[in-house]
Design goal:
Number of domains: 2
Number of helices: 17
Organism: Dyella agri
Helix content: 40-55%
Protein name: M56 family metallopeptidase
Main location: membrane
Largest sheet: 6 strands, mixed
InterPro entries: Beta-lactam_resp_regulator (IPR052173), Peptidase_M56 (IPR008756), TonB/TolA_C (IPR006260), TonB_C (IPR037682)
Radius of gyration: 33 Å
Distance between the termini: 61 Å
Number of strands: 15
Membrane topology: Single-pass membrane protein
Shape: elongated
Strand content: 5-15%
Structural class: alpha+beta
Length: about 425
Amino acid sequence: MDAALLRSLWYISAALALVLLARRPARQAFGAGPAFSLWLLPALALVLPCLPELPAGWSVLPSIRVLPGAIAVGMPAADATVSMPWLRWLWLAGTAAMLLRLGVHYVRLRRQARALPASMAASLPQLLDGFDLHRLRLHASGPAVLWAPRSLLLLPADFLDRFDATGQRLVLRHELTHLRRGDALWSLAAELMLALLWFHPLAWLARPRFRLDQELACDERVLRHTPRDEAGYAQALLHSVDLSAAPALIPWFAEPQLKERLSMIQRHRPGALRRRAGYAALAVLMAGSVFVAQAATGNPPHQTAGQDLSYNSRLYPKYPAAAIKAGEQGTVMLKVQVLADGSVGSIAYEPEHSTTTSADLIAAATDAARQWRFNPETKDGKPVDGYVRVPVAFDLHPPPSPADDVEKSNSKLQKVF
């Protein structure tokens, strides 16, 4: 399977696991706002392979060992990348099905939403704090925010009867806070992430917790500005009706959230200093995650060049007779430019990484390298020019093989008997 996709999947899995483990302690230490911002980490993990690469050296291929009077011995590692295109098609099919489901829900909600009656519209402006009345709609799933190019605020037909004056004010303030925080875009991004990760159990585990953290952060902001409304806020929650939230909605209330939201209202909320410390800690965590992920890959997200072994094995260098006569041996390090088509560009001898200065050995290694072929470096799936270092070791006195040791032992035994 494509290495870049596997690396991205690993990053996202680690980020989801970290958020699921850290969200509750972060909420207790810094408040619901910084804790909700932790959900930026999976989004960062998704785009991490697209971030600028850290500087990295050229890859060094396994050494080629050249013996006198024999073919050179190459010892490169095999390419372990497994190609399974059917997995990619299965993933794309699942993603398309999830996006279709999301689109169907959205279109259905838009079609079911109706304009606000004039009598209801006349009684709300003083509660809306300048919000555009044209973005209000009637829908049975309200109170809720429906994300769109211009997000809509949905209200149930019995909104004025269901909530008293205090409840109406607090519910509308909650929904307007969602809009000001950009939560509609957050929810859209979360649904798109779920569509991409439809096969991942952590993504399904994260979804309801993302919704809960979003509501808690919104509740916290509303009550931070009006702390005296805590009792009325809790009362409005208790008198709400359970909603089955569609993917395209941010509903005012869903029953699984009730306990956590009521507990948050009763708890002492962190002050401004602790909230800022939480956001600062999150920024450090994200920057550190980028650095660690990039450093862990060594030569980050692209495939480095490698040898075309089936071709190069027939063209390894031969030990020059003049060098054998002169007793010259050692390792020649070549810096080889690999062009996008796999052919060889420039070749340079690197004395600082070599153990011999023999002109004959350097020439033999260079002449052979000019005929080699390479698998080019790839970046974003496209071949690009790159460099590799190829060590060529010329050895006049190779260590004895096991077969030689056995032959010597047999000859000694024959002399004894």
